[in-house]
Amino acid sequence: MKKEIALPDYNVELGPIGTTLAQYLAQHTYSKICVLVDEHTKLHCIPLIEEVLSGALLIEIKSGEHQKTLDSCRHIWSSMVDGKMDRHSLMINLGGGVIGDMGGYAASCYMRGIDFIQIPTTLLSQVDASVGGKLAIDFMGYKNFIGLFANPSAVLVDPSFLETLSHRELRSGYAEMIKHGLIQNKEIWDRLLGLGDWRKMDWYEEIYQSIKVKKEVVTIDPKESGLRKILNFGHTIGHAIESIALTTNQPLQHGEAIGFGMMAEAHLSVTKNGLPLEKAESILNYLKKIYTDAIIGLMRSDKKNKGGEILFALLDGIGSSTYDVTATDQEIEECLRMTHKWM
Ligand code: GLY
Q1: 3-state SS string over 87-131?
Q2: Nearest-5° angle of CA 180, CA 185, CA 191?
Q3: Which helix (H) or strand (E) holds 37?
Q4: Are 35 and 21 in contact (CB under 8 A)?
Q5: What confidence tens digit (pLDDT) does each residue in 57-91 have?
Q6: Whole-structure pTM over 0.85, yes or no?
Q7: Which atom of ligand 1 lies at the shortest distance from residue 214's CA?
Q8: Which atom of ligand 1 is nearest to the CA of 128?
């Protein structure tokens, strides 16, 4: 199976990575090729492409948002210089959002810019981060503070990379798929809502449909001067939640925070933007089903808790309270459900 989505400057190719990558390389000539990986993609993803890529220079960074720094770029650039990569070289970014954002940034600055291709290996990067040319690293604690817009020469998407992802990581990417339906394409939303168990979706087709939404938006507004801002639905509140969670010992995944952000911003859409209340309720009910346990996990990591139990200070009257009251996950879920109803 193979599908193609054409953007003005490059194509997104969906298909088995061995085939799409071999095709791309047969159509282009490069003096050298390097592949940027982390320990996970080195282990799980390199085996799928190494046959096509014999002789490529492997550059490894540690996984995680904390690695998206100038220091990592220094490591990437020195490895490229040591590997004698020149302006006619290619960089392949094999990984999730961090690898794609930072690898694309490093490639775009190296010798004033060399070709790079994105091979996104997480759901989040397949449906969102790899498409649209946003490249950046974090700086002085600010996310994506240093960067630029530059397009890859191709984005190669293979849903079979998702097989080694955890449920949590998949769920994180799923939030961006939900978002694409909500902001622009009701058919996607209706289909996802009707799925029952979202993990049983036709990944190939739904990833394709989701990327098409992103493509339509970034083609009209590549540099986010207007329409592209709709991709930020759920992100204003979601980023704040994500930043707070980052200071705990159980940070939320990006998509989990965006899941909560979309719940909150669905409410705001009712009060500020004319979204009918019953539509907001269906959004909230759906998101709550999928993302509630992430918020309970975050509560569990609160340093005020003891021995894995979630401890509350609760009222037993007006002007009267007690502390160290425990509650089960079911009780907390019920209280979140009630809060949503009241809201
Ligand atoms: N992830 C939002 C954007 O690419 O604009």
Answers
A1: CCCEEEEEECHHHHHHHHHHHHHHHHCCEEEEEECCHHHHHHHCC
A2: 90
A3: strand 33-37
A4: no
A5: 999 999 998 899 999 999 999 999 999 999 999 99
A6: yes
A7: 4
A8: 1
Tokens of 274: 């004319």
Q: Please name the amino acid found at residue 274.
A: G
- DSSP letter at 132? S
- State whether the beta carbon of 254 lies less than 6 angstroms from ligand 1: no
pLDDT tens-place string over residues 217-270: 999 999 999 999 999 999 999 988 888 877 777 778 899 999 999 999 998 999
From the CA of 134, give the closest atom in ligand 1. 4
**Which amino acid is located at 240 in the chain?**
A
Q: Which residues are catalytic?
A: 112, 134, 176, 214, 224, 228, 232, 235, 239, 254
| Coil/strand/helix, residue 81 | helix
Q: Cα(34)–Cα(142) distance, rounded to whole angstroms?
A: 28
The tokens for 214 are: 């992103």
Q: Is 228 in the pocket of ligand 1 (CB under 6 A)?
A: yes
Q: Are 151 and 133 in contact (CB under 8 A)?
A: yes
Distance 78 CA to ligand 1 centre (A): 29
Long-range contacts, 1-9 (Cβ 8 Å, 24+)? 1/204, 3/204, 3/208, 5/208, 5/211, 5/212, 5/215, 7/131, 7/151, 7/215, 7/218, 7/219, 8/219, 9/151
- Cβ–Cβ < 8 Å for 191, 198: no
Give pLDDT tens digits for 267-288: 899 999 999 999 999 999 899 8
